[in-house]
Design goal:
The chain has about 350 residues and is an alpha+beta fold. It has two domains: about 180 residues, 2-Layer Sandwich (Fructose-1,6-Bisphosphatase, Chain A, domain 1); about 130 residues, 3-Layer(aba) Sandwich (D-Maltodextrin-Binding Protein, domain 2), CATH 3.40.190. It is built from seven helices and 16 strands. The strands form three sheets. It has an eight-stranded mixed β-sheet with strand order 4-3-5-6-7-8-9-10, with helices on both faces. A six-stranded mixed β-sheet has the order 12-11-13-16-14-15, with helices on both faces. Strand 11, helix 4 and strand 12 form a beta-alpha-beta unit. The structure holds 2,5-anhydro-1,6-di-O-phosphono-D-mannitol (AHM) and magnesium ion (MG). The site of magnesium ion has 5 residues, from strand 5. One of its GO terms (molecular function) is fructose 1,6-bisphosphate 1-phosphatase activity. It comes from Fistulifera solaris.
Amino acid sequence: MSSKFDSNAATLSRFVMSQTNDHDLVILLNALAISCKLITSAVQRAGVAKLYGLAGEVNSTGDDQKKLDVLSNDMMINALIHSGVCSILVSEENEEPIVVPPAYSGKFCVAFDPLDGSSNIDCNVSVGTIFSVYERKPGSHGSVDDLLRSGAHCICAGYVVYSSAVELVFTFRGGDVHGFCLDSTIGEFVHTREKMMFPADGGKRIYSCNEGNAVHWDAPIQEAVEYFKTAEQPYTARYVGSMVADIHRTILYGGIYLYPADAKAKKGKLRLLYEGIPMAMIIEQAGGIASTGMFEGKIQRVLDLTPNEIHAKCPIIMGGKRDVQVVYDQYAKHGVNVPSL
Ligand code: AHM
Ligand code: MG
C-alpha cells in the first residue's frame, strides 16, 4: 500500500555502511553530511538571520568573503575536527591548512570549498559545497604533502547543491556516482539517484561558460563556442555561475561546462583541490570527460594534475564526450596534439 511514510528509508549512512567496512570512513561521511545540513539551514535562513553581505575579510584567493562563506566554513571545520577521523583540513576560505589537534586526529585529509558560488548567495541562486578526501601517507601524522598529490590519490569526492531541493552527490574512487536528496521531514539524506551517468546519447546540447571572458580566451575555445552557437543542431546556453549547479545540470542533462585558462588568468579561476579534482572524479565516474583544455603547453586530464600548493588553480573543460570532442577538434585544427576520447 502506498504511503507518504517510508518504513525502510535508504539513508546516506545506510548506503555508506553497505559500501565500506571502514568505520572511520562512515564517521567521516556522517560528519560531512551533518555540516551540509547545518549549511542548508544557514542558506535557507540567510535572510531572516541577517546573513547576507560581506564578512569584511578577503579569502586565500583574494575574493571577498561573505558572512555565509565564513559561517559555512566554521561549520565544516568544527564538524570535521570533532569527527575524530581527520588530521588535516584545507579550505578555500583558509590561507593556511588546519591541523587537527592530536586529541582528535585521525587518518583522513579533507579539502573543501564550503560554499561555492559566493556571488549567488545574496540573491538566493543555487550555491554548493564541494569536498574531496585523501588518506595520510604511511608514516605521516598529517601534513599538506598528504594532499599535494594527483587526483589518483583521492579516495572519495562529493558535492551538495543547495537549491529548490538539497542534493548530495558523491562517489568513492573507482565506484558509481550516487545522489541523495535531503528529506527535511526526517533531516536525512535519502538515496534518490542510483549510478548517475551522463546521458548515453550525449543528452541536451548545452554549453555553459562565462562568455564575458570570451575576448581573453585562446582561439580554439572561441571557435568551439562559436561552433556551439552556429552548429546545424545549435546548442543552448545555460550558466548559473555556481559550479556545483552547472556541473549537476551537465551530468543530468548533458552538455559541457568550461572555465578555461585565458590571457588574464593563465591557470583559470577554479581551484584544483577544492573544485577541479573532486568534480573531475565525479564527472569521469559518471562517464564524462574532465580536461584542462590547453594548460601549461598541453591538454591534460584534470585528475593527472598534482597541486604544487593547496590553493593551486586549473582550467576546466568538463562534459560529455560528444561536446568535449568539439573543443578538442578546434585545438587539433590549430595543430595541437589532442588525446583521443
Ligand atoms: P567561489 O568559490 O569564490 O564561489 O568561485 C567559484 C565560482 C564557481 O562556482 C563558478 O563556476 C565560477 O566561480 C563563476 O565565476 P565567474 O563569476 O567568473 O563566472
Ligand atoms: Mg567558494
